[in-house]
Amino acid sequence: MHAEKGKDQLEIFVTILAALNLDAHFDLFLPKQLISPVQLARLQGKQRQRASGQKVQDEEDVPSWQ
């Protein structure tokens, strides 16, 4: 069996844990979230983005050999 060798998919692993009545331990596989991503975005506020304008070459920037 692939699950005994550790070569099975997550869906099968979850099914095996549920069959063994170990589904209460699913939360052990997930890290604790101290703050939700939505709350983090609200706390950071709206961040300004840099404008990406087109660079206009001045005559001074053009080398004399051109």
Folded structure, characterized:
The N and C termini lie far apart (72 Å). It is elongated and about 80 Å long. It has helices at 2-5, 10-19, 37-44. The chain has a domain at 1-27. It is mainly alpha-helical and 66 residues long. The chain has three helices and no strands.
Low-pLDDT runs of 5+ residues are none
Percent of residues in helical segments? 25-40%
Q: What is the count of helical runs?
A: 3
* SSE order, one letter for each helix or strand: HHH
Radius of gyration: 28 Å
The 3D shape can be described as elongated
Class from helix and strand fractions? mainly alpha
Average pLDDT figure: 76
How widely separated are the two ends?
Answer: 72 Å
- Count of individual beta strands: 0
Percent in strands = under 5%
**Sheet with the most strands, sense and barrel status:** none
Short description:
The protein is an all-alpha fold and 66 residues long. It has three helices and no strands.
What distinguishing features does this structure have?
single chain; 66 residues; mainly alpha
Give me the secondary-structure topology:
Blueprint: H1 2-5, H2 10-19, H3 37-44
